[in-house]
Each structure stands twice: as C-alpha cells, then as structure tokens.
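Review box. Two proteins, two foldings.
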Amino acid sequence: MTFLEVCYRYPGKLTAAHMRRLGELTGVYGLRRIRVEEDRNRIYVEFDASRLKETEALRVLRGAGIPLSEKVEIA
C-alpha cells in the first residue's frame, strides 16, 4: 500500500450538510482519512494510491457536493 495526501482549498464555509457528507466518505474504498482545517479553508485527503488515483479521490469529494476551488501544495 502507498498512502498519499493531497490538499484542496474550498471557498467560504462548509455547512453542516457538507461535514456530514465528508463523514460518510470514510467508507469509500481507498480513502483513508479526511481532515478539515476550517481556519485555513483546506481539506486534506489521505488515500491509498494502489487503490485510487488522485483524480478519483477528487471526483469522490466533488460528487459529494464539496466545493473545492484548487489544489494546494503541501509543504
């Protein structure tokens, strides 16, 4: 297994419905962890790269209605 973490910025604030949907995504095959930094408007997604591609992880987030604006490089 190869775990990767990517970070995306989102505009505005996440609603309670967004947070609920994020919680439901932990059951998605290949997603390992989702962490939200509300003060910086960022979502970190850790996934198993042997099971998912980054584009697929992004599609899962957007499919759940999470408004993502851009990828952020992790320092």
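Next protein.
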Amino acid sequence: MQRAAVSVPSNIAEGRGRASARDYRNFLLHARGSSYELETQIEIAKQLGYIRAEEASKLTEDTNRVQRLIHGIVRSLEARESS
C-alpha cells in the first residue's frame, strides 16, 4: 500500500518535469493507475481485518478525490492538445 501511495505523487511530479504535455498526461495516467491499485489494496486490507471499515471508507474517499483531481488535469491537457 505504501509503494502504491508514494507512486501517485511521484508519477505526477515526474510527469510535470517532462518537456511535453503528452508525457505529463502519460505520467498522470500512471499515477491514476497507482491510485486504483491503492484503492484495491485498501479493500483487501479491510476484508482481511487489517483496518476497520470506517478507516477503509475514509481512505477510499480520499483516494477517490485524488482520482477525480488527476482525471480533471488529464481532461484539461487533452482539451489543450485538441485546440
């Protein structure tokens, strides 16, 4: 879970440092993929009893919020590319 969680901002930062919007978008998509991986791991941790349902719910909400933010940036980049 920790690796997936760290991968999200790391991919965003790496993509932001790239020369093109297309590269940035690709790294954002990797970050979003890592966030889905994290969401799955949260559910597994809940099912195995490592975390309480309330804690899992809060973590999932936070992860979903990050996913929406990433999706918004991706849409913005795509809109600029098509202009």
